Amino acid sequence: MVELFSPTNCFFRRSIISADQFDTKSIEQVCKAARFVDTGPQIFGEALKGKILITYFYQESTRTRLSFEACMHRLGGDVISTTDAARTSSALKGETLEHTMAVISGYGDVIVLRHTEEGSAAIAAEKSIVPVINGGDGPGEHPTQALVDLYTLWSTLGRLDNLRIAVVGDLLYGRTVHSLVKALALYPGNSVVCVTDPELALPKDLATSVQAKGLKIAETQDLGEAVRSVDVVYMTRIQLNLFKDKVKKELEVKAATEEELERLVEERVADFKARTEGKYILYRRLLPDIDELAEDEGLVWVMHPMPILWEIPREVDSYRGSIYIRQARENAMAVKRALLLMVLGA
Ligand code: NCD
């Protein structure tokens, strides 16, 4: 079993930048490796002794950074970390990401990077002398979250094909959805119902490319109807932070002063909020009422990459199909331990 982590594994000494890198074989390896570290007899408490994980985060994070760091500690490795690189690193002095990565990659064995810019993880991987794991690059991708999501589907439903999934909320800026639909397109028979405002639809290029691979995509703005037709509802929050980053970039050229820029950004954000807030909420009454039944038949599984804001009311937390806590806690810890072992070898 430990050959899952030997140099023959799909991710050994490789950067993980996009779900475009995945195939059914590598996803299967990750799922099996995650199950093995989670439930297997083998203890990996010393497996990464002497290795250093660098977490370099230019953008806010709770789970991604802490779970990777916790996993590295659990595996006996060390962690060095910058949590607010945009303000506390030499980025503030104007240093390029290329220079930063070229240098700091000599300080450790693997880097988990989160950045505000789409494409930044690919640039970092080019300059780094150690593997880079993309922990979210602006509105681009979040491939390790997709692996957590796939492991959650695989371990809960027992398959990754012939799934019917509603993806709800912010599909434009939701990088976890971008990576997930790419992965779902690798399997036969999967269909996705996009439940969102037209302003927040999946990026066109992405929708076209996954459809060309065979993923069926439907659209609706009726969440209740979508819930009745699927096995899984994958909720997301409206990504106001990413929307704000993008708007700021767009308006930078128009604004004469910092104050004017601030005001223009606030106006656009307020308008956007008014149009989207309160929409696409998964009320308990939209879910099949089968909490009394022993079987899972008819249950709709509720997933979310988290953080959850208003889109899932607290009453849904106790619904039997709600698996977002397990997804973000046990499953994320299993997948990220597996990934660190695969990338670094054990
Ligand atoms: C997401 C992210 O940052 O992309 N969270 C995560 O890492 N699991 C989702 C979000 O911020 O809404």
Describe what you observe in this structure.
The protein is an alpha/beta fold. Helix content is 41%, strand content 13%. The chain is built from twelve helices and nine strands. The strands form two sheets. Strands 7-6-5-8-9 form a five-stranded parallel sheet. The longest helix is centred in the C-terminal third of the chain and has 21 residues, at 324-344. The termini are close together. The chain binds N-carbamoyl-L-aspartate. N-carbamoyl-L-aspartate (NCD) binds at residues 63-64, 136, 142, 145, 175-176, 237, 239, 305-307.
Shape: globular
Bound molecules: N-carbamoyl-L-aspartate
Helical content (DSSP H or I, runs of 4+): 40-55%
The SSE order reads: HEHEHHEHEHEHEHEHEHHEH
Mean pLDDT rating: 93
Low-pLDDT residue intervals, each spanning 5 or more residues:
none
The total beta strand count reads 9
End-to-end distance, in Å? 11 Å
Structural class by helix and strand composition: alpha/beta
Strand order of the largest sheet: 7-6-5-8-9
> What's the Cα radius of gyration?
20 Å
Number of helices: 12
Largest sheet: 5 strands, parallel
Strand content range: 5-15%
